Amino acid sequence: MNDLRAKSPWITHYNTGGCNGCDIEILAALGPKFDIERFGMLNRGNPKQSDILLVTGPVTLRCRDVLRRVWLEMPEPKVVVAMGSCTHGGGVFRHLYHTENGIDGIVPVDVWIPGCTPRIEAIIDGLIEGVEIWKNKTKEKEYMVGHSEKLLEKIGVLND
Amino acid sequence: MMGLLLTLFSPIIGGFIYGVERVVKARMQSRQGPPVLQPFYDFVKLMQKRPMMVHSFHASMGIMYFISTWFAMAVLMMGNDLLIAIFFHVISVLALTIGAFSVRSSYSIMGAMRELMHVVSYEPVVILLAVSLYLVTGSFDIAKILTSDITPIFSLPLVFISFLGVMPMLLHKSPFDIAEAHQEIVGGPDIEYSGPFYEAVYTARWIEYVYVYFIVFLFGGSNYFLGTFLVVFSFIFINAVDNSTARLDYKKMLKFAWFILIPLSMLNIFFVVVGAN
Fold first, then answer.
1. DSSP-assigned letter for residue B261
2. N-term to C-term CA, chain B
3. For labelling alongside B104, which of A107, A120, B154, B187 has CA 20 to 30 A away?
């Protein structure tokens, strides 16, 4: 059953304030030349129905809680793929007043795709590796980095 | 017995139709596309997700949509009344919209309103279709329509054309996919469903495919070969239109349905009645 499941990963793509270079590469991956629907991947744009969270950009302070919310709204099993050097440690935005220096302290990451911007082959490679990890995950609830009641209340998901 | 088997297997048939449709769509955009069994992989995946719901009423309305669509399908496949099948289909769509209205997500509410506009647009044409089939074959019963001597398509060509115009609204295809506009209101009424509950809505959509193409099949009458040809023709036509047009807004859909398709059906019914007298 897990092998069948691995054939239909649906993606939510969230840009946390990057330069849009990575997003254009993702759109190219959806197009005719590098058709990632071959692997059953769809860009759903809806966290409630998707399995892979594809994050680009340095996490700006405004985006931080939204990213946490998007991650919480995804039902398990789920996988986070961080794409591009901004997401890894801030990239060119590192140590600026408005960024979090990467996704690392916000949500747990499973696959890192390096590059600025990564080539489309690298994106497909990273997503496939994410699917391999996702295949072995279970329904068990996951918790984000620094999980607490106070944080949940701040994001506004405690009563949902 | 045959009807019972077809009813039980209608989600599987619908899944195959949807899988073929995704491949056809990909080939039309010069992509390779997913495997034909892709909807079933999605089905297995959605069953294995952790169940999350907004509230229990919303989730139960999603399951209600699935059950009543399947029930409409059973009425059709068992050879019963066509009108009852149409009314059960309306009940299923209403269950979906009531569920979508019950959550606070604005996209969901907007999608439910647009879904009601779909119903307002396509329902008169579908009712006129049932009426015209009654006028030609003398019965609302599917079993009698499928064994009658008259082939309905030859006396109802304009009704068939207006049903072709209505099919994109029933199946949420491109010129009239305003209810689940994936780029503006991400999926419309089914945005808040997730995991196994979304799977109910997703499977109900497959059954809707079988429901709509079975109504097309009725136009062949007792000539099953002609009916199959009409189903294949309408499948190719709907996909070609789906991939070559952009989305319109609900006013244009309503105007198209009420000022072009309904008069077209009425004209055909008028000629049938005049010809009979």
1. I
2. 39
3. A107
Q: Which chain A residue's Cα is nearest to B48?
A: A139
Phi/psi of residue A106, each to 5°? -105, -60
Domain count, chain B: 1
CB–CB of A75 and B182 under 8 A? no
User: How does pLDDT run across A61-110, given as a tens digit for each residue?
Assistant: 888 888 888 888 888 888 999 998 888 888 888 888 888 888 888 888 98
Identity of the residue in A32, A49, A76 whose CB atom sits nearest the CB atom of B31 = A32
Containing structural domain, residue B18: 2-276
Q: Which of A4, A46, A160 sits opposite B41 (nearest CB)?
A: A4
Report the alpha-carbon distance of residue A53 to residue A71 in Å, rounded: 7
CA dist., res. B199 & res. B205, Å (int): 10
Answer yes or no: do B48 and A77 touch at CB < 8 A: yes
The predicted structure's pLDDT at residue A72: 86
Place of tokens 């239109």: B241
Render the burial of A30-54: b for 16+ CB within 10 Å, e for the rest: beeebbbbebbbbbbbbbbbbbbbb
CA atoms of B5 and B141, how far apart (whole Å): 19
Alpha-carbon span B134 to B137, nearest angstrom: 5
Contact A75 B42 (CB under 8 A): no
Q: Rounded to whole angstroms, what are the CA distances from B196 to A39, A135, B47, B157, B246?
A: 22, 18, 5, 42, 31
CB B235 within 8 A of CB B213: yes
Residues paired with residue A82 on neighbouring β-strands, in sequence order:
A55, A112
Cα B188 to Cα B201: distance, rounded to the nearest angstrom? 12
Would the pLDDT of B268 be above 60?
Answer: yes
Q: Which residues of A touch B41 (CB under 8 A)?
A: 4-5, 7-8, 40
Give the per-residue pLDDT at B233. 92
On the question of pLDDT at B44 being above 60, the answer is yes
Domains of chain A from N-terminus onward:
2-155 (3.40.50.12280)
* CA angle A85–A89–A94, rounded 5-degree value: 100
What ipTM does the predicted assembly reach?
Answer: 0.84
